[in-house]
Specification:
Shape of chain A: globular
Number of strands of chain A: 14
CATH class of chain B: Mainly Alpha
CATH superfamily of the largest domain in chain A: Type I PLP-dependent aspartate aminotransferase-like (Major domain)
Largest interface: A-B, 17 and 10 residues
Order of helices and strands of chain B: HHH
Order of helices and strands of chain A: HEEEHHHEHEHEHEHEHEEHHHHEHEEEHH
Helix content of chain A: 40-55%
Radius of gyration of chain A: 22 Å
Helix content of chain B: 40-55%
Strand order of the largest sheet of chain A: 4-10-9-8-7-5-6
CATH topology of chain B: Non-ribosomal Peptide Synthetase Peptidyl Carrier Protein, Chain A
Number of strands of chain B: 0
Largest sheet of chain B: none
CATH class of the largest domain in chain A: Alpha Beta
CATH architecture of chain B: Orthogonal Bundle
Shape of chain B: globular
CATH topology of the largest domain in chain A: Aspartate Aminotransferase, domain 2
Distance between the termini of chain B: 16 Å
Largest sheet of chain A: 7 strands, mixed
Number of helices of chain A: 16
Strand content of chain B: under 5%
Oligomer: heterodimer
CATH architecture of the largest domain in chain A: 3-Layer(aba) Sandwich
Structural class of chain A: alpha/beta
Distance between the termini of chain A: 46 Å
Chain lengths: 415, 83
């Protein structure tokens, strides 16, 4: 072991650089189950504060749902705590196969393989199915986990301007000589809350003989008529070759992810995807709860409908108050502030008012695009949203940003 | 030389800026180190240069540094053309 002053100072310096750049991340300690209202201790040791939660991915409000918790306990009792194995040695239980089949049916695909997370699904899928003769053409705003998956794959890479179909078409023409071409996009983009133009992407894929990959982590369970995701919303069910998604957001919120799609592609992942081959199986307790989640959301669209109503109320309220809100169809509602410090000050003031939301700025979003990202949940009740809206308006007035244009806000606070 | 510079600048602007983009690209604007050009799309840029100027850019010369500004790209192209 050589961990002397020199080694320690290297890391201390690097951490100081992160602090000085204003991008050091502190954890807020939540002393309650995940919900629309939570007890938070921040900074560590401070008095606990009750806050309305406007920044979780608990879109359907199922993370702490009594039936889901009960199913988790049942799973723990019937199938144990851990499997102490990867899937292909002795880590596949009947409930793992049941969950994979249920996801296949829910997503309307041919087959599904579970991964420890969607990060792992994205990290493993490209390397498992593509080689040097192929090309991956990705939207420039895809999630970091997809970027990592692309980096791990030997196929050629290219990108297209965010949701720009003319540019994508040019790239498909440019790479016409490749064995396989894969168009890669998020279904809902996590920072902007906008949706990929999957109907147009599928048309281009058909025209230029390409595969389509969609990460629907911010859509599975609540986007589309029955909540299947963006492929249902865009009327391209059965036409997406690879869907990755997570169980860590709307679908129970614990952990786990999957690759779902063409049978041969899923089988290739079972044979070759390294995060599947070399990490533990999803624990039975999570699998049992996820099965219950799918049963709940397959029965009716009650929770999805409530989420849509909450989103509509929230978007309308912010727009009417004069905030600059990114348009979109999803429960991700970004309020644009442009200046990084303003986004941090705004979030801090929200915290003082009992509202929990986070300011995002470069490098998480492009420079000059700082924002507060709010996320709605079916567990929000209207009075909570009214309180949150009042707080946003109060702070918006304090900083004099209501009914101002982007240029006017930048003039006051800079970029 | 001036014509090559303008052509490459035009390509880079067209390829990497959106219509409503706040960013401005000049001859000496850092492209890769500033995040304007993502490393995944360098293949397009490389192939554009190879086709346009009828050259082959070896991987050893297609470095992040060689592609980091329009000025650097022009220098790289000129070097390969003169070899």
């Amino acid at each position: 072991m050589t961990y002397n002053k020199k080694e320690r100072d290297i890391f201390k310096d690097e951490l100081n650089n992160i602090r000085n750049a204003g991008i050091f991340k502190d954890e807020r300690i939540i002393c309650a189950p995940q919900d629309s209202e939570i007890e938070v201790e921040f900074p560590a040791g401070a008095e606990k504060k009750s806050l309305i939660n406007m920044c979780s991915n608990n879109y359907l409000g199922l993370s702490s749902h009594p039936e889901v918790v009960k199913a988790a306990i049942k799973g723990l009792e019937n199938r144990g705590y851990g499997m102490s194995s990867v899937r292909f040695i002795c880590g596949t239980q009947d409930i793992h196969k049941k969950l994979e089949n249920m996801l296949t049916e829910f997503l309307g695909t041919e087959d599904t393989i579970l991964f420890p997370s969607c990060m792992d699904a994205n990290a493993g899928v490209f390397e498992a199915i593509l080689n040097e003769q192929d090309v991956m053409i990705s939207d420039r705003l895809v999630h970091a986990s997809i970027v990592d998956g692309i980096r791990l794959c030997k196929a050629q890479t290219d990108t297209y301007k965010h949701s720009n179909m003319n540019h994508l078409e040019k790239k498909l023409q440019f790479h016409s000589d490749k064995r396989l071409k894969v168009i890669i996009t998020d279904g809902i983009f996590s920072m902007d809350g906008d949706m990929a133009k999957l109907d147009e992407i599928v048309k281009l894929a058909e025209k230029y003989d390409a595969l389509v990959f969609v990460d629907d982590s911010h859509a599975s369970g609540f986007i589309g008529k029955t909540g299947k995701g963006t492929h249902e919303f865009c009327n391209v069910l059965g036409k997406i070759d690879i869907i990755t998604t997570t169980l860590g957001k709307a679908l129970g919120g614990a952990s786990g992810g999957c690759v779902s799609g063409r049978a041969e592609i899923v089988e290739m992942c079972r044979q070759k995807a390294r995060p599947y081959l070399f990490s533990n199986t999803i624990p039975p307790v999570v699998v049992s709860a996820a099965i219950k989640v799918l049963e709940i959301i397959s029965k009716n669209t009650e929770r999805k409908d409530k989420l849509e109503k909450n989103t509509e109320f929230w978007r309308n309220g912010l727009n009417e108050a004069g905030f600059i809100v990114k348009d979109g169809e999803s429960p991700i509602v970004p309020i644009m502030l442009f200046n990084a410090k303003l986004s941090q000050d705004f979030a801090q003031d929200l915290y003082s008012e009992g509202i929990y939301a986070i300011g995002f700025f470069y490098p998480v979003v492009p420079k000059g695009q700082a924002r507060i990202r709010t996320q709605l949940s079916a567990s929000h009740e209207k009075p909570q949203l009214e309180i949150a809206l009042d707080a946003f308006i109060k702070i918006g007035k304090k900083y004099d940003i209501l009914n101002k244009t982007k240029e006017e806000i930048i003039e006051i606070y800079g970029l | 030389m001036a014509e090559i510079k303008e052509t490459i600048l035009e390509y880079v602007k067209d390829e990497y800026l959106d219509e409503d983009d706040d960013k401005e690209i000049k001859f000496d604007t850092p492209l890769i180190s500033s995040g304007i050009v993502d490393s995944f799309s360098m293949i397009s840029l490389k192939r554009f240069l190879e086709t346009k100027y009828n050259i082959q850019i070896p991987d050893s010369k297609a470095t992040a540094e060689a592609f980091d500004t329009v000025n650097n790209i022009v220098k790289t192209v000129e070097e390969i053309k003169s070899e």
